[in-house]
UniProtKB/TrEMBL annotation:
Protein name: Alanine racemase
Alphabetized HAMAP family for the sequence: Ala_racemase (MF_01201)
Taxonomic source organism: Aeromicrobium flavum
Gene giving rise to this polypeptide: alr
One example of a Gene Ontology biological process annotation: peptidoglycan biosynthetic process
PANTHER family reported in the protein's UniProt record: ALANINE RACEMASE, ALANINE RACEMASE, CATABOLIC-RELATED
Gene3D superfamilies linked: Alanine racemase, Lyase, Ornithine Decarboxylase, Chain A, domain 1
Amino acid sequence: MSNAELVVDLDQYRANLAALRAYAPDALQMAVVKANAYGHGTVPIARAARGAGVDWLGVATPQEALDLRASGDRGPLLCWLAIPGAPFAELVDADVDVTASGVDQLHAIAAAGERPRVQLKVDTGLSRNGAFGPQWDALVAAAARLQEAGTIEVTGVWSHFASADEPDHPANDHQESVFRAAVDQLASAGVDPGVRHLANSAAAVTRPSSHFDLVRIGIASYGIDPDPAVPVPEVRPVLTARTVLANVKRVPAGASVSYGWRWSADRETTLGLVPVGYGEGIHRTASNRAEVGFAGSRAPVRGTICMDQLVVDLGDRTARIGDRVTLFGPGDDGEPTAQDWADAAGTIAYEIVTRLAGRWSRTYRGER
Ligand SMILES: *Cc1c(COP(=O)(O)O)cnc(C)c1O
């Protein structure tokens, strides 16, 4: 038994996917389940996504794709971040669509098996992965040759936004027009581009012009807004992080709390010990800033967040060892959300859920 539990509501996850479908009704839907499904647990989330009728799953690494196949997953699946020596043969054999971001990578994929399914990634301005400028010209030419020879099957062309979470950012229009030109270039070279895709959650919600054939939905499917500036009122958080008080004590005014004594009580109060810390992926930068949910309202974290535990101030509330504490969840019972923790920790809500690690158990609610 773990000291702390992540409760994942699969019914809510499926409801979120359905709500997001309505934003891009004419596009295929890819559920992005990389990084352990943003902390929610890849295999149950992937199964729920398939059950909800998503058209594709997306992951970053080859290993994530192979792990999904090993779990029995069969449908369309794209991976996009490989290094030299990546297990392309296994991926091709497992019917995974592999992304090529350059000519050398394309050749490595082409050599890996029988007519690999390849998607071509163009860098439209994020300057991360993907082929840029003359590299894209070369990738298009190589893909056209290999496709013509029947060596590969090009199944898609895609790119990724830099600032979709800032809908008015000029990068969005720019990247979209670069993408359109790249798709045209591929078609002019005689390659049927397959599925064309550019949008993540934020673009799926705010930018219909970017939907093309498919939208790649990550954060919003987990019920978290891509950014406070991009609210998605139709979705609700899927994950609740909770535990119970491991200790409770009454302390006098002047008592100091946790490493470094970075907080001292200015009055008599009740402290509760919460048995999770940065070993569970709780951000230490939220020390003295975050709150937890307790008995229908919030209690502040006091002092430094430790590896295994943190301390909350329960004031004069009645509290017993074993009482429920909710670190974050949908907010229904007054508890903070992942966004509240992000604000306290100085980061984004993506990182709050994705960093969850270590000694949690995961419990799944809703039909598996
Ligand atoms: C993570 C990721 C996504 C999903 O982005 P969200 O903002 O979580 O919707 C989409 N596409 C790519 C390439 C990604 O790496």
